[in-house]
Design a protein that fits this description.
Elements (H helix, E strand, L loop, with lengths): L2 H29 L1 E6 L6 E2 L3 E5 L6 E2 L15 E8 L5 E7 L7 E10 L4 E4 L4 E3 L2 H12 L5 E7 L5 E8 L2 E4 L4
Antiparallel strand pairs: 1-10, 2-3, 3-9, 4-8, 5-6, 5-7, 7-8, 10-11, 11-12
């Protein structure tokens, strides 16, 4: 096989891999169950990735006693938070598990730390990327408690969650993928 053909095959494989990642993300985002979570953002800046808002929701800090948690968790363990929609349209955790639940909507995360009374988990929902102006506006609104803000998330059947956008004072702001 000549050198040009090998180079072409490598480039084609890399391109196919990247396209597959984008298609997987778009499919999960479009076909997952929409979940809306309360949020408490803070605005930092990543020199490589740009401006973003650190997102913290009630799912990030869980109390096992109130969620019927009989399992013990340690750092790095898988955590499945079963969520249900309340009357105000916001979703809340109703139980937590070490193993994937058979029914219901659940979000899969990893335990960052755990004590007997509290579990801190990450769900790949911790950063909401925005342009500089939007990120600063969100932080200002949060600091001054001007708006009611919620996170709009798409949750796949495997529990992986992807941020779709924000809800600010009841107005949905879905961020386009492209």
């Amino acid at each position: 096989m000549n050198r040009t053909l090998r180079l072409f095959l490598i480039v084609a494989a890399m391109t196919a891999f990247l396209i597959g990642m984008v298609v997987d993300h778009a499919t999960r985002r479009a076909s997952g169950t929409e979940v809306i979570l309360d949020l408490e953002p803070v605005d930092p800046r990543d020199l490589l990735a740009g401006y973003y808002v650190i997102v913290s929701t009630p799912l990030h800090l869980l109390t096992p006693d109130s969620l019927g948690g009989t399992d013990t968790f340690g750092r790095g363990d898988d955590l499945y938070a079963v969520v249900e929609e309340s009357g105000d349209g916001v979703w809340h955790a109703v139980s937590i598990h070490r193993e994937r639940p058979e029914t219901g909507v659940f979000i899969h995360g990893k335990v960052q730390y755990a004590t007997e009374t509290v579990i801190r988990a990450d769900y790949n929902l911790e950063r909401y990327y925005a342009d500089e102006e939007m990120a600063q506006a969100i932080e200002l609104r949060r600091r001054e408690n001007i708006d009611s803000m919620r996170l709009i998330v798409s949750v796949g059947s495997d529990g992986r969650a992807i941020i779709r956008g924000l809800e600010i004072n009841g107005e949905r702001r879905i961020v386009p993928l492209f």
